[in-house]
C-alpha cells in the first residue's frame, strides 16, 4: 500500500498539525543547539552532514539521533530535509534536496531530479564499496535507523508527519531504476520495518500487562475497587491500541510498498536483504508474522538462482527452528517445503548445502516424525563428502539421529567396557560403516563424527574390549567383517587424535593448534601409548593370520610416545610386541603386511629414545636370519645342472620379498645384498628361465640398494646427477612412443609439479650466478681457465634443462624464469636462451608469447619489490625491462600474419596484468602495475591494423571515464600505450596499403616486372576514399557491434583463415580481407608513378583526412563516455524479476544521438539492442573472443 501522495504533500507543507500524542514536541533546546545550519556539531565536527558523521563513525549513534530529535522539535521541516538528504547521500548521489524542492515538488519529481545528479561513470556506491570503512558504514547506517525509531517511539513517530514522509520517500526510492537508490532504500526500509516490529512488540507486551492489571482491578470487591484506576487503565489501553494500529499501518505500508516488490528484485543483494529481515520479523514477533502469509515468501525464494539468497532463506528458517515452540508452528510449512530443503543438501554452493543440513538437524530435533528414512539416507552419505564442512554437518545429523536417543534401559549401564552404552554405540557405528559400502573411507567417517562424537571415538578401552573379550551370554558376537571394520575405525580415530588434522583430500590448509588443542593432543597420545602398549601384542597374537587386521594394527606404534615404555616400565610389553612382529613376518608373504612390519621397526628404532638398543638388536637378529636364509636358498637355487623346483622358487621369492620390504625403510648396506641379487639377475639373463616375480623383486631390492648408496654420496656429484636426470626424463617422455612404438606407453613418465619446481630451482641456483671478476692475480691464466670450465659446465646444465622445455617434458611457462635472464646473461647463455625461444615458438606460438610476457611480469614485480610502488621509468631497472621487451619483439619477425594470434594474446595478458592490482594511493590513483603498459607498447608495432582496434577496445574495458581524462606523469604509460594502438599512428598509418603493396611487389618481382611498380601512390581523392570507405567506416560499424554483451564468433573466411597468405593473389587478399570496392582495386593496380608534386598533395590530403578521422573519433569517444556513464546507474533488462524496476535504454540512447553533431560523416548509432537484434550484428573478421574471455565478453559496453 502506497502512502497517499496528497496527504504526504500536505504534511510536508505543514498543513497537518501535530497530534495529541505529540504534545510537548516543541519543547527542547533552542535553535542551533548541537546543529550548525542543520548539520551536526560535536567534538569539533562542525558543518558535517548526517551522512558524514555516520560514515566517520566518530560519534555515538545515540548522540547523533538525540541531536536530530532536538532539531526536529524546533523545526521539523529543516530536520526532515536533513534526514532526506542523509538517505540521498547514502545512495552515493552527489545532489541534495533543497528546501524549495522539498516544499514545492512531488516525491517522484524529487527522485527524478536526484537521478540526474548521478555523475559518476561507475556503479559504485557506499553499500557496494569495499574496505573496512565501508563495511562499518553499513552497520552504522542500520544502527542509525534502529536508534532513530527507538528514540522516537513514544511520541514523534505518531505525529503523522515524520514516518509518513520517510516511508513515502523510501517507497519511491525503492522503485527507482537506479540500483544505488533501490538498494540503499530497500535496506533502510527493511531496517525501519525491523525497528517498527520491535516497537509493535513492546506495545503488545504493554497492552497485555495493562489488560491483566485492568482485569485484576476489576475483579476486586466493590469496596476495594478504585474506579479512577480503572478509568486510567482503560485510557492507557485505548492509547496503546491506537498506537498499535498506527504501527501496523506503517508496517503494512512498508511491507506492501517495498518488500512485496523487492523480494524478487533483479539484484540478488536486494533480495537477500528482504529475506534476511523477514526472518528477523518472524522470530521477534511470531504472533503477527509467523504464519503462512509470510512464510510463503521464504519458501518461494528457496528456489532462487543465486546461492546468496538461498543461504539467507535457510539461515532465516534456522532462527525459527532453534525454538521448539516456534518449530511446532511450522508443521504446514515443513510438509510443503521439506523436499526442497532436502534437495538443497546437494546444492552446488557448498555454504548453502551446509546450512541446509544444519536446518534438517534442527528439524530432526524438533520432531522425529517429520523426516522419513529416505530423507535421512540422503544426508547420511554426505559424511563421506570431500568438502569437510558438509561432511561435519552431515556427521552431526547422523550423530543426532543414531546416537542421541537413550532409552530407560540404558541409563544403568557402565560408562566404559563391552557392556557400556558406548559399546552399543560403537557397534552402531560399525554397522553404519559396513552398510554404507564405502569401507576405504573410514578416515572420512571418523573425521565427520569427530567434532560431535570425539568422546565416543576416543573410547579405545571399549573398542579393545569388543575385540579381545568374549561376548556375554545372550550377546551376539561381532563377525569377522565387523571386527575388521572396528579395527579400521579404531586406527582412524587414533590417527585423528594424534595428528589433529583432517585426512588427505579433506585438508583445508595447515592450521596452527591452540595451546588447549596441543595439550589435548599430548594427553591423547599418552593414553594411546599406555593402553595399546599392553593391548597391541594381544591383538596381534589373536589376529596374527588376518592380513587386513594385522596391517592396520601394525600402524598403531607410529603414534606412540616411546618414552612411556621406559617411564612406565613397559619394557616387557615392548619385548612382547617385537616377538609378535617377528611372528607376523614369519607367517606372511603379503607385501602390505611386510611393509607394515618394516615401518613399525622404523618407528621404534629411534636413536632419541632409550629403547633404541633393544629394538635395534631385535631388528638385526631378524635381518641376519633373513639374509642367511636367502644366501642358503640362493646357493641351492643356482646349482648347475639342476632345475629348481617350485618349492625352492617359492622359498627364494618369499625371502626376497621380506628383504626388499625391509630394505625400503632400513639401510642394509652392511649385508652386501648387491652381490647376491646380481648373481640372481645375471643367471636369469643367461638362462632365460628365471621366474618373473623373482626377477621383479630382485630388481626392486637392487633399486633400494642403489638409492641407499646415492643417499650417502656427497653433493659434489649433484651436477652430474642433474644432467642424468634430465636425460632420463627426456628418454622416458612421450617421445619414446614415436615411430610406431605405442607399446612403450607404460614406460612414459611425466614429472609432477614438485619435481619441475625442484629442477627449475636447481637451474636458478647453479647456473644464473655472477662470476668473480678477479683477473689481477698472478695465476691469471689458471683463473681464466677455471672460469671457462665452470661456465662450460653451467651451459651444459642450462642446455639440459632447455631440452626439457623444447620437448615438452616440463611446462613451457617454466621457461619464463629462463627467458627473463636473456639480457643480464646474454654473453654467457644468450645463444641457448634465444634458440630455446625460437624452438618453443615453433611448437606453440601463443604459449610462447604468454611465456615471454610472463617473464616480463616477473621482472616488473621484482623491480616493484626492490624500488617500491613509485616506478621511475628512467631508472636502469625499468629501462632494462623495456629493452628486454624490445628484444623479445624483434624475435617475432616481420610476418605479422603468422604471429597475429600470439601477439594478440600477449597484449591481452599484459593489459590484464597492468590493471590487476588496485592503486596503492586509493581511489583516483593509477593501478599499481600501470607502468607495465609502457613495456607492453614495445609489442604494439607487431599488431596489424584490425587487431590494434580490437586490443584498444579491450583496453577500454578496464578503463574508467576518469582514466581517459588524466594527463599527469603517472598516467603517461597508459597514454603512450593507447597512442601506440591508434590505427593512424606513425608505425601503422599505412598498414593496409603497405601490406598489400609489399605482397604485390613480391609477386611482381617473381614475374620479373619493374620494381617501380611497387612504389606507386594513390591519387589524393582515391587514397582518402580507400581509408574512409574500406577501413574507417567499416571499423566504426564494427566498434558498435563489439559493444554487444554477447560477442559473435567470426566466420571461417577462406581468404583469411583457410588459405595460406603466401598462396593468395594480391587481389584476393585485398578484396576478401578488407572488403574493398572493385573499382578501387582496379585503379590501385593500374596507377602510374606519382610525381613529386602529386606526392606532396597526397601527403597534405592524408594529413587532412587524419585530422577529420580524429574529430570523428573524439565525437565517438564522447558518445561512448555518455553511454558508459549510464552503466553505473542503470541495469540491462535481460532477465527482469521486477518489471517496474528496469527502464529501457532505447529512449536514453535516442536522446544521446540527437545531441551528436559530426562534421563530415554521420555515424548512425543504433538504440540499445535486445538479444534477438544482437545476434544479427555483423561480426568482425578477426574474432575478438580469441583475446577476450567470457567474463569480459558478457559485460555490455553500455
UniProtKB/TrEMBL annotation:
From the Swiss-Prot or TrEMBL record, what is one GO molecular function term? Answer: chromatin binding
What broad class describes the main subcellular location of this protein? nucleus
Which of UniProt's keywords are assigned here? Cell cycle, Cell division, Chromosome, Chromosome partition, Coiled coil, Nucleus
Task: Quote the subcellular location field of this record.
Answer: Nucleus; Chromosome; Chromosome, Centromere
Q: Where do the coiled-coil regions begin and end?
A: 200-253
Give the UniProt record's GO annotations in the biological process aspect.
cell division; chromosome segregation; sister chromatid cohesion
Concerning InterPro entries, the annotation shows:
ARM-type_fold, Cohesin_Scc3/SA, HEAT_SCC3-SA, SCD, STAG
Q: Which Pfam families match?
A: HEAT_SCC3-SA, SCD, STAG
Query: Residue limits of the SCD domain?
Result: 259-344
This protein's GO CC annotations: chromatin; chromosome, centromeric region; cohesin complex; nucleus
Q: Which domain of life is it from?
A: Eukaryota
Q: What does this protein do?
A: Component of cohesin complex, a complex required for the cohesion of sister chromatids after DNA replication. The cohesin complex apparently forms a large proteinaceous ring within which sister chromatids can be trapped. At anaphase, the complex is cleaved and dissociates from chromatin, allowing sister chromatids to segregate.
Recorded family membership: Belongs to the SCC3 family.
Its subunit composition reads: Part of the cohesin complex which is composed of a heterodimer between a SMC1 protein (SMC1A or SMC1B) and SMC3, which are attached via their hinge domain, and RAD21 which link them at their heads, and one STAG protein.
Protein name per its UniProtKB record: Cohesin subunit SA
Look up and give the organism this protein is from.
Sparus aurata
Q: Which gene encodes it?
A: STAG2
Amino acid at each position: 500500500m502506497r502512502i497517499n501522495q496528497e496527504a504526504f504533500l500536505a504534511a510536508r507543507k505543514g498543513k497537518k498539525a501535530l497530534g495529541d500524542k505529540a504534545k510537548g514536541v516543541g519543547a527542547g533546546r533552542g535553535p542551533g543547539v548541537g546543529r550548525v545550519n542543520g548539520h551536526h556539531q560535536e567534538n569539533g565536527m562542525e558543518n558535517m552532514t548526517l551522512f558524514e558523521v555516520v560514515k566517520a563513525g566518530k560519534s555515538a549513534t545515540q548522540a547523533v539521533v538525540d541531536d536530530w530529535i532536538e532539531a526536529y522539535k524546533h523545526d521539523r521541516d529543516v530536520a526532515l530535509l536533513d534526514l532526506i538528504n542523509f538517505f540521498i547521500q547514502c545512495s552515493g548521489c552527489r545532489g541534495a534536496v533543497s528546501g524549495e524542492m522539498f516544499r514545492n515538488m512531488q516525491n517522484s519529481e524529487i527522485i527524478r531530479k536526484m537521478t540526474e545528479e548521478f555523475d559518476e561513470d561507475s556503479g559504485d556506491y557506499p553499500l557496494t564499496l569495499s574496505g573496512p570503512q565501508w563495511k562499518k558504514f553499513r552497520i552504522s547506517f542500520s544502527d542509525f535507523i534502529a536508534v532513530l525509531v527507538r528514540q522516537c517511539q513514544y511520541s514523534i513517530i505518531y505525529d503523522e508527519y515524520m514516518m509518513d514522509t520517510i516511508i513515502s520517500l523510501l517507497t519511491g526510492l525503492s522503485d527507482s531504476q537506479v540500483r544505488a537508490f533501490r538498494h540503499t532504500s530497500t535496506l533502510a526500509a527493511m531496517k525501519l520495518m525491523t525497528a517498527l516490529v520491535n516497537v509493535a512488540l513492546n506495545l503488545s507486551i504493554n497492552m497485555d500487562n495493562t489488560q491483566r492489571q485492568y482485569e485484576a482491578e476489576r475483579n476486586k470487591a466493590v469496596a476495594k475497587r478504585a474506579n479512577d484506576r480503572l478509568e486510567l487503565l482503560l485510557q492507557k489501553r485505548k492509547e496503546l491500541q491506537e498506537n498499535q494500529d498506527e504501527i501496523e499501518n506503517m508496517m503494512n505500508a512498508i511491507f506492501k510498498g517495498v518488500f512485496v516488490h523487492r523480494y524478487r528484485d533483479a539484484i540478488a543483494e536486494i533480495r537477500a536483504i528482504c529475506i534476511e529481515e523477514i526472518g528477523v520479523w518472524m522470530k521477534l514477533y511470531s504472533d503477527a508474522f509467523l504464519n503462512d502469509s509470510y512464510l510463503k515468501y521464504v519458501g518461494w525464494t528457496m528456489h532462487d538462482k543465486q546461492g546468496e539468497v538461498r543461504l539467507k532463506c535457510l539461515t532465516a528458517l534456522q532462527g525459527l527452528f532453534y525454538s521448539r515452540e516456534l518449530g511446532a508452528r511450522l508443521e504446514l510449512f515443513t510438509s510443503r517445503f521439506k523436499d526442497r530443503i532436502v534437495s538443497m543438501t546437494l546444492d552446488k554452493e557448498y555454504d548453502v548445502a551446509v546450512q541446509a543440513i544444519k536446518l534438517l538437524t534442527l528439524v530432526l530435533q524438533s520432531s522425529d516424525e517429520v523426516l522419513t528414512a529416505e530423507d535421512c539416507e540422503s544426508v547420511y552419505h554426505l559424511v563421506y563428502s570431500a568438502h569437510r564442512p558438509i561432511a561435519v554437518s552431515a556427521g552431526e545429523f547422523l550423530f543426532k539421529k543414531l546416537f542421541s536417543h537413550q532409552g530407560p534401559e540404558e541409563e544403568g549401564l557402565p560408562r566404559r567396557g563391552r557392556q557400556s552404552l558406548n559399546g552399543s554405540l560403537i557397534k552402531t557405528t560399525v554397522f553404519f560403516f559396513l552398510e554404507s559400502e564405502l569401507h576405504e573411507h573410514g578416515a572420512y567417517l571418523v573425521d565427520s563424527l569427530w567434532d560431535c562424537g570425539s568422546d565416543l571415538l576416543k573410547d579405545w578401552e571399549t573398542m579393545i574390549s569388543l575385540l579381545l573379550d568374549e561376548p556375554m551370554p545372550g550377546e551376539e558376537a561381532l563377525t569377522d567383517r565387523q571386527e575388521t571394520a572396528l579395527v579400521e575405525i579404531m586406527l582412524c580415530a587414533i590417527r585423528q587424535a594424534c595428528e589433529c588434522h583432517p585426512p588427505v583430500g579433506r585438508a583445508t590448509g595447515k592450521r596452527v593448534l591452540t595451546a588447549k588443542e596441543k595439550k589435548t593432543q599430548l594427553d591423547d597420545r599418552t593414553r594411546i601409548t599406555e593402553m595399546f602398549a599392553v593391548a597391541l601384542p594381544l591383538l596381534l597374537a589373536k589376529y596374527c593370520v588376518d592380513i587386513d587386521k594385522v596391517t592396520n594394527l601394525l600402524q598403531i606404534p607410529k603414534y606412540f610416545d616411546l618414552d612411556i615404555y621406559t617411564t612406565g616400565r613397559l619394557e616387557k610389553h615392548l619385548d612382547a610386541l617385537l616377538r609378535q612382529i617377528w611372528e607376523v613376518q614369519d607367517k606372511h608373504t603379503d607385501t602390505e603386511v611386510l611393509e607394515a612390519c618394516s615401518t613399525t621397526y622404523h618407528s621404534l628404532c629411534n636413536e632419541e629414545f632409550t629403547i633404541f638398543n633393544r629394538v635395534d638388536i631385535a631388528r638385526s637378529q631378524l635381518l641376519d636370519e633373513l639374509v642367511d636364509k636367502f644366501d642358503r636358498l640362493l646357493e641351492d637355487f643356482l646349482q648347475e645342472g639342476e632345475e629348481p623346483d617350485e618349492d625352492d622358487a617359492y622359498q627364494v621369492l618369499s625371502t626376497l620379498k621380506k628383504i626388499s620390504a625391509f630394505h625400503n625403510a632400513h639401510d642394509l648396506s652392511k649385508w652386501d645384498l648387491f652381490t647376491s641379487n646380481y648373481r640372481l639377475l645375471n643367471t636369469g639373463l643367461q638362462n632365460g628361465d628365471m621366474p618373473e616375480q623373482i626377477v621383479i623383486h630382485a630388481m626392486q631390492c637392487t633399486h633400494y640398494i642403489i638409492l641407499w648408496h646415492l643417499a650417502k654420496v656427497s653433493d659434489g656429484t649433484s651436477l652430474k646427477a642433474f644432467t642424468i636426470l634430465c636425460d632420463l626424463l627426456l628418454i622416458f617422455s612421450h617421445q619414446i612412443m614415436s615411430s610406431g612404438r605405442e607399446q612403450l606407453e607404460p614406460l612414459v613418465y611425466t614429472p609432477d609439479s614438485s619435481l619441475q619446481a625442484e629442477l627449475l630451482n636447481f637451474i636458478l641456483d647453479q647456473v644464473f650466478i655472477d662470476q668473480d671478476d678477479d683477473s689481477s692475480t698472478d695465476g691469471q691464466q689458471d683463473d681464466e681457465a677455471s672460469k671457462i670450465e665452470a661456465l662450460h659446465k653451467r651451459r651444459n646444465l642450462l642446455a639440459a634443462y632447455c631440452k626439457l622445455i623444447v620437448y615438452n617434458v616440463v611446462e613451457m611457462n617454466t621457461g619464463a624464469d629462463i627467458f627473463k635472464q636473456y639480457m643480464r646473461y646474454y654473453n654467457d647463455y644468450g645463444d641457448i636462451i634465444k634458440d630455446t625461444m625460437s624452438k618453443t615458438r615453433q611448437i606453440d606460438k601463443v604459449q610462447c608469447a604468454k611465456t615471454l610476457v610472463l617473464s616480463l611480469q616477473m621482472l616488473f614485480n621484482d623491480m616493484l619489490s626492490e624500488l617500491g610502488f613509485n616506478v621511475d621509468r628512467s631508472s636502469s631497472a625499468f629501462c632494462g625491462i623495456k629493452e628486454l621487451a624490445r628484444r623479445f619483439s624483434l624475435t617475432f619477425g616481420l610476418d605479422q600474419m603468422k604471429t597475429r594470434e600470439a601477439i594478440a594474446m600477449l597484449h591481452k595478458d599484459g593489459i590484464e596484468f597492468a590493471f590487476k592490482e588496485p592503486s596503492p594511493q586509493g581511489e583516483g590513483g593509477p593501478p599499481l602495475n600501470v607502468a607495465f603498459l609502457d613495456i607492453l607498447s614495445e609489442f604494439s608495432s607487431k599488431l596489424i591494423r584490425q587487431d590494434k582496434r580490437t586490443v584498444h577496445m579491450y583496453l577500454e574495458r578496464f578503463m574508467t571515464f576518469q582514466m581517459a581524462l588524466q594527463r599527469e606523469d603517472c598516467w603517461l604509460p597508459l597514454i603512450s600505450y593507447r597512442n601506440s594502438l591508434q590505427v593512424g599512428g606513425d608505425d601503422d598509418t599505412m598498414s593496409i596499403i603497405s601490406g598489400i603493396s609489399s605482397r604485390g611487389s613480391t609477386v611482381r618481382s617473381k614475374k620479373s616486372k619493374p620494381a617501380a611498380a611497387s612504389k606507386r601512390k594513390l591519387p589524393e581523392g582515391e587514397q582518402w576514399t580507400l581509408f574512409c570507405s574500406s577501413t574507417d567506416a567499416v571499423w566504426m560499424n564494427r566498434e558498435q557491434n563489439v559493444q554487444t554483451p554477447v560477442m559473435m564468433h567470426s566466420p571461417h573466411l577462406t581468404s583469411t583463415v583457410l588459405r595460406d597468405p603466401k598462396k593468395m593473389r594480391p587481389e584476393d587478399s585485398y578484396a576478401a580481407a578488407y572488403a574493398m570496392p572493385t573499382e578501387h582495386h582496379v585503379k590501385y593496380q593500374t596507377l602510374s608513378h606519382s610525381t613529386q608534386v602529386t606526392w606532396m598533395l597526397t601527403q597534405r590530403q592524408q594529413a587532412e583526412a587524419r585530422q577529420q578521422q580524429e574529430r570523428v573519433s573524439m565525437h565517438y569517444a564522447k558518445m561512448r563516455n555518455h553511454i558508459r556513464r549510464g552503466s553505473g546507474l542503470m541495469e540491462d533488462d535481460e532477465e527482469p524479476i521486477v518489471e517496474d524496476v528496469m527502464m529501457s535504454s532505447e529512449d536514453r540512447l535516442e536522446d544521446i544521438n540527437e545531441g551528436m553533431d559530426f562534421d563530415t560523416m554521420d555515424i548512425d548509432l543504433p538504440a540499445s539492442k535486445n538479444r534477438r537484434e544482437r545476434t544479427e550484428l555483423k561480426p568482425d573478421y578477426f574474432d575478438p573472443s580469441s583475446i577476450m574471455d567470457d567474463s569480459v565478453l558478457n559485460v555490455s559496453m553500455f
